[in-house]
Amino acid sequence: MGGLVSTVIESLLARKQKLVEELEKAQAAADRDRIEHQLEQINTALDFLDRPGSKGGR
Length: 58
Hints:
78% helix; mainly alpha; 2 helices
């Protein structure tokens, strides 16, 4: 199960990097808000996955 968690984390980190790049280019406030909201969701997911016990008792 740890491999699956690693894959999910890698996917989230890749998505986060893409969003950060979009945020740097975003002009409209609505776009920036949407991107920041998605980044918050990704950070929450990463925090949850990185907690002790979420990786098979680690």
